[in-house]
Inverse folding.
């Protein structure tokens, strides 16, 4: 799960685009990208929203 979430965070998608599809605040995405927040410290709800979206964007990763 962390691998696909990290791939989403490292992607070229804007924080706004991720927020629009997941309802996760763009500030959370920005803080993850800046290293001010760690993936391991996300709430389960937030991680799940990002994970579901990441599987849509990177379907090959969701199968691993």
């Amino acid at each position: 799960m962390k691998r696909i979430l990290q791939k989403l965070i490292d992607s070229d998608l804007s924080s706004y685009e991720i927020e629009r599809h997941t309802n996760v605040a763009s500030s959370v995405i920005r803080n993850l990208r800046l290293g001010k927040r760690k993936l391991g410290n996300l709430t389960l709800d937030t991680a799940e929203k990002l994970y579901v979206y990441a599987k849509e964007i990177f379907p090959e990763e969701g199968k691993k």
